[in-house]
């Protein structure tokens, strides 16, 4: 039996039954079996797991058309075997249908019984690429977008509050794009020329990012095992996340608070922009998450970050009017990073919006008290819902007349975003979805 597909199946089971995050589950399963796998195997496992998780709604829709058993009655093992088989037949042109069917049947024999194997065989033999094409003929716009892009209806309805149907369809399509690997060069240790030279020597293809310190890599594997990464010459970071740190516009010798800092990508970028001079106080709610910030800072050779386990919603008098600038990259529903964490769309529900926006408002209200006069707060999320973004800001400004919008200004590298009140980035081929807003204390 194909061990590669079996590892993928076990990972999907873990995501479904233990509610593990897809990226963590994949990493753990690959580490556990690393001695049995080569790079191609690792790539195929990731393809299957992320593919099935991303397209689950669409795969189930196709499955319903060919199964005489309701999905709720099918065991989790067999259901995921069927999803894997359908995903390969519909979306992976390099996998022959016969291989997809036969390997799925073999898995069903092991994780079910004889009747399970016969059922899997009967269903998958009926599946054809036309099944997916037929979904585009659905007349109702919301239903069509949901079933062709594998997006829950409630997310589409939320997006329609602020966007027309064409824009929403594009947002949903783009959430299924396979993400590129983007890196940020650590200017405390090296420069772009040296990194580009090293990549050329290793045969790693890349292109310039929109931001000055960023490169977009092509088809690179196991990047965290490279000595250049281990020695802190670069960090893996999306350009949207980098844009947030740039919006803070940190200067050497300033005192800055990053109140929701883990895992530390934006924190460490701010430290690099400050040339490792001044101080950044980095908070997070849990010790293991604070440790991630410390680990990243050590690898990058940064010494100005002081980490603490703190709840950004609880007021502390000692921090009153202490900081020149504050970054609030607040907890959010994460709908802007679905292409990296597709399981988010199955874990979240509409009712979560009210709960998360209350947390966001509390953090912003509380941390605003820590800002010096004329100081600046950058509020950011990796979400694309109005309620989590502009909605939170508008409510805050209504209550706090001593704050106002501060125009966001950038350098020549991103001139199209110059002099903005707020930025809403949507997921694309080279960036995740982010909201960024800057406020100033009068």
Shape: globular
Quote the average pLDDT: 93
| Helix fraction by DSSP (H/I, runs of at least 4) | 40-55%
Low-confidence stretches: 412-418
**Rg, alpha carbons:** 23 Å
Number of helices: 19
Q: Count all strands and give the number.
A: 12
| CATH level-four homologous superfamily name of the largest domain | Vaccinia Virus protein VP39
CATH topology of the largest domain: Rossmann fold
Number of domains: 4
CATH architecture grouping of the largest domain: 3-Layer(aba) Sandwich
Most strands sheet = 8 strands, mixed
Beta-strand percentage range:
5-15%
Structural class: alpha/beta
| CATH class descriptor of the largest domain | Alpha Beta
Distance between the termini: 67 Å
List keywords for this structure.
4-stranded antiparallel sheet; alpha/beta; globular; 47% helix; N-utilizing Substance Protein B Homolog, Chain A
Could you characterize what this model shows?
By secondary structure, this protein is an alpha/beta fold. The chain folds into four domains: 131 residues, N-utilizing Substance Protein B Homolog, Chain A (Orthogonal Bundle); 39 residues, no CATH class; 56 residues, Sun protein, domain 3 (Alpha-Beta Plaits, 2-Layer Sandwich), CATH 3.30.70.1170; 203 residues, Vaccinia Virus protein VP39 (Rossmann fold), CATH 3.40.50. It is 47% helix and 15% strand. The chain contains 19 helices and twelve strands. The strands form two sheets. Strands 5, 6, 7, 8, 9, 10, 11 and 12 form an eight-stranded mixed sheet that branches. Strands 2-3-1-4 form a four-stranded antiparallel sheet, covered by helices on one side. Helix 5 packs parallel to helix 7.
